[in-house]
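Hi U.,

Before I forget, here's the chain from the pilot set. I'm dumping it here mostly so it's searchable later in email.
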Amino acid sequence: MNVVEFRRAILAMQGYTPGEQPREGGFVKLNTNENPYPPSPRVIAALQEFLASRSLALYPPPLSDAVRRKASEVYGVPEDWVLIGNGSDELLDLVVRIFVDPGDRVAYPVPTYTYYRVLTLLQGGVPLEIPFPEDFSLPEAFVAAPARLKFLCNPNSPTGTFIPPRDIERLVRGSACPVVVDEAYVDFAPESALPLLKRYENLILVRTLSKSFSLAGLRVGFLFAHPAVIRELLKAKASYNVNILSQVGACAALDDLEYVRENIARIRSTREWFSEKMRALGFFVYPSEANFVMVRKAGVDLRFLYEALKHRKVLVRYFPEWPDALRISIGTEREMELLVHHIAALLEEAHV
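Structure:
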C-alpha cells in the first residue's frame, strides 16, 4: 500500500483494548464493570412510548437539550456548565482535542484507565505517567507535574481506590492547567468533587450513565465545566453526537433516582461480601469504592485462573502488564457466589 501513508503517531501507537464481549450466550460477564441489574422500568417505558409514537427519520436535538436540562436539575449545575456526550469516552476525547497540541504533555497517575494514553498519542501529545504510591493516594509528583492537561480517574480503574475531594482540591489548586476528574464510578463512592466545580475554572468533571444507571448500551455521558470550556468543546463536538433513543432513555433514567440508589446499595453490599470472601481465599483486595474490585496474589501469574474461569463461562479482566491481579466486576449475589465457588475449586486444583 505505497500510495497510502498513515500518520506516524498512529503507526507507532497501540490502540485501546476493550473488555471482551462474548459472542455466545450463557456467560457470567464480570469483566467490563457493567451493572448487573436492568435499567429503571421508566427507561423501557419511555423508549417504547417514543418508538410507538415518534419517527426515527429526524435528526436528534444536537445539544441533547432535554438531557442537559435534566442533568442540570439533578446535579445542581447551570445548563451552560453542562455538555452531553456519546458516552464519557467521547467527552474525554473532546477535551484532549481542544487543549493538546503535538508535543504537549498530558499527565495522569498509573495504573489507570489506559484510554487516556491512547487519546494523548492520537493528538500527538506526550504521556506523562506518574506511578501511584503503594497506598494509591494522590501522588505529590502528579500535583507538581508541569503539563498541558491532567487526568484523574476517581474512583480509579482498575483498582477501585478513591481519592477524597480535599486532595482533589489540592491537585486542582496546584495545577496550572485543566484537570479532568473522570467520575465514571463515583456513584459507588462516598462523595464527588462536584462541589468544587464553581470554585476552580480549571476543573472539568466527567460522568457516565453506563455504570450506576445500567445504560452502558445507550452511551450517554455528562461533562461539567466552566461555560468558557463548554463553548470551546462545542466547536469540536460532532453535530448530532447523541442519538434520540439515548436522549429519551437518559431523561427517563434521571427521573428515577430512587431506583438507581437501590441498585447502588445492593452492589456496595455485594462488593463488601465478595471482598471478604476473596481475602479468606488468600487474595489481597484493594479497597474499592467502585462497582468492581481488584484482587491480587503477589508473584502468582493469574492467567491460569482467568482462562479456567472463561472455560467455565465466567469472564473477569486480566491485565498482562499486571499478571498477578484480576479485576472483577460486581454482579448479582448469585453470580458472585458462583464465582467464589469456582475460584476456590480452581485454587485447590492448582495448589495455589
